[in-house]
Specification:
alpha/beta; Rossmann fold; 2 domains; 10 helices; globular; AB_hydrolase_sf; AB hydrolase-1 domain-containing protein; AB_hydrolase_1; AB_hydrolase_fold
Length: 237
Amino acid sequence: MLTQIHGKTVSFEVLGKGETVLFIHGWGGSRESLRKLAESVSQKYKAVLIDLPGFGRSENPDPSWGIDEYTAIVARFLQKQRLSPVYVFGHSFGGTLALYLAVRYPKLVKKLVLCAPSYKRGGKKAPFASLLKNAFPRPIKRLLYGIFFPTSELYKYPHLEPNFRKIVTQDVSADMKLITVPTLILWGDKDSYVPVSHGRRLQKIIKDSQLEIFKGIGHGLPVYEPEKVYKSLEKFL
């Protein structure tokens, strides 16, 4: 299904009936990334999968969009579909949006389930990466990123380069203390993208929260281990 939100075409899908669980995928994913998990959830709940702008079948965002604008799209989607308040599941960047949604639009969120949200930014950039950013025309820069940084999210989704650059500078950790809804935090102890230490820190910041760590699993926890995630999610909901 398609809907128009803030002038953008947004694609989504609804599975099952009952109370609503909204699934927000990570950067570079789509609603297909969380489909297996959503299908399990849809046995008891209404599972709503959304393609974030720039991914799946949704229209590209404006170049100026960052976390605020993406969150506003999700909020307006819930309002337009008359789905709130809902349970929200977010993975990685989708977890960041879920966190921000609970802070900026608390009436829309009933409970949060966060899987390795990339909410905290920091650290020094590699000197060569900085050189690539400033020294070469865009086509050459993309080629060099592909050679020297083959796993770079910037290289994988060049059409979202301005958005990605803005998002990775936005640290929303200071707002997390404002979250008041019950929160379940899920993390793989082998996560090399967002370290599990961020999960432990998040659990201390959010008052009514619990942390569950999965051994031997990396950042793709809900994508590759949906059955394990579903068991924890079902118990929490």
